[in-house]
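TA notes, week 10

Several of you asked for a full example with nothing omitted. So below is the full record: structure tokens for the whole chain, then the designed sequence directly under it. When grading your own attempts, check the secondary structure regions first.
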């Protein structure tokens, strides 16, 4: 009897916890056991949220983890308006990205600096494609001598 009460309390706590994770206004129910029932307790919890069936819940696309395909220790230097500038921690390896659907795609550079060899971007192309001003101010812009 004592183990049944403990199971009921644990199940009730789990229902409350999972209900809170679902983000909806769910009212947990406390399972009740009778003397005739088996000591096996099955709890079914339905969690509702913004994700549709078969898809993972949406995550913040600006988190460094979103760029692990290109960097072992990614850092995000800019992320807004469907654009990002991310790179490898403690290096000068930095790339531009555009959000396409739920995936970041590298935005191609337009040339290289003749002085440093770093990639540069054409300001008029970035503007035409909708890059935020704050991002344009952060990147090396191509000059006629950079190609």
């Amino acid at each position: 009897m004592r183990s049944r009460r403990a199971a009921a309390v644990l199940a009730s706590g789990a229902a409350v916890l999972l209900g809170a994770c679902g983000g909806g206004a769910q009212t947990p129910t406390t399972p009740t056991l009778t003397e005739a029932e088996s000591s096996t307790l099955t709890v079914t919890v339905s969690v509702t949220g913004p994700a549709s069936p078969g898809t993972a819940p949406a995550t913040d696309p600006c988190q460094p983890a979103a760029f692990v395909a290109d960097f072992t220790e990614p850092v995000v230097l800019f992320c807004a308006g469907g654009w990002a500038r991310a790179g490898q921690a403690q290096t000068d390896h930095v790339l531009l990205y555009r959000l396409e659907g739920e995936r970041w795609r590298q935005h191609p550079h337009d040339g290289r600096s003749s002085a440093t060899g770093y990639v540069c971007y054409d300001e008029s192309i970035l503007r035409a494609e909708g890059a935020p001003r704050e991002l344009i101010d952060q990147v090396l812009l191509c000059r006629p001598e950079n190609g």
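The radius of gyration is 26 Å. Use that as a sanity check on your answer.
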